[in-house]
Specification:
D-Maltodextrin-Binding Protein, domain 2, alpha/beta, 2 domains
Length: 261
């Protein structure tokens, strides 16, 4: 074949390839990536999992519970591949139990605590003083022993010097998603909930919120670990990298989770 004909043939091959439809990357395995996800991620993670699947061909399933519950399950051998917690203390427990690949949690986001109430709750103003007034009879918070956002809510009430005064009003939820349900259903007049919950279409339509000043409680720095011996370890690392890309970080910020740094 002459050089001229070889060049023409090569150009035709390149042109044909460019006309072919894009092929989705083959999955690393037919088994899904199993993610243990903190409850505050429930409103924001599903579309990110879909984007990850479109880009990589890797399907991921998430189980949403309190960070403490998920950490205990992983330590006891639950078959998760990746743990996305709402703080760094619970991933650290998994590390100390020898069940993580990392030596320290990998920060992936920073959460925001807000005070939320229904528009028809009868609460005149969302401020610290309202919580101790007779207008507020019930306050939803996540369990401080199980949920980092509940721990932040308790720290906020201590910072405001009103924890003992409002303790009889507290309605303790298992996790931050349930605290939002308590407030939205009217089982509590106000709730300390995550910004990720407050920004969902339903809660935006049903009520309003005010952010808690970040200096009023310890930072809600959210951390992750890949579970040691995970069947989908490679996919877990790949998703963790995907989660920290600028585009996904921008998506998380729009939904209530700021970048970790």
């Amino acid at each position: 074949m002459s050089d001229r004909r070889r060049l023409v043939f090569t150009l035709l091959l390149l042109l044909s390839a460019s006309c072919l439809p894009a092929q989705r990357p083959a999955p690393l395995s037919s088994a899904p990536l199993r993610i243990a996800a903190a409850a505050d991620l429930q409103p924001v993670l599903p579309p990110i999992l879909q984007a990850f699947a479109r880009q990589t061909g890797i399907r991921a399933d998430a189980s949403y519970q309190s960070s403490a519950t998920l950490a205990t399950q992983i330590i006891n051998g639950a078959p998760f591949d990746l743990f996305l917690a709402a703080d760094t203390s619970f991933p650290q427990r998994v590390i100390e139990a020898g069940r993580a690949e990392e030596t320290q949690p990998v920060p992936y986001a920073r959460g925001t605590l807000v005070l939320w109430t229904r528009n028809d709750s009868g609460v005149p103003a969302l401020n610290p003083e309202a919580l101790t007034s007779g207008a507020v009879r019930s306050i939803a918070i996540a369990n401080p022993e199980h949920a980092p956002y509940g721990r932040a809510a308790q720290a906020t009430l201590e910072h405001w010097h009103m924890l003992n005064a409002v303790r009889p009003k507290l309605r303790i939820a298992e996790n931050i998603a349930q605290a939002a349900q308590y407030a939205d259903s009217g089982n509590a007049q106000v709730g300390f909930i995550s910004l990720t919950s407050a920004l969902t279409p339903r809660l935006k339509a049903d009520g309003h919120f005010t952010p808690i000043p970040p200096d009023d409680h310890p930072p809600i720095l959210q951390g992750a670990i890949v579970v040691r011996g995970a069947a989908q370890s490679q996919a877990a690392h790949r998703f963790l990298e995907f989660l920290r890309t600028p585009a996904i970080a921008h998506t998380l910020a729009a939904e209530g989770l700021e970048p970790a740094s």
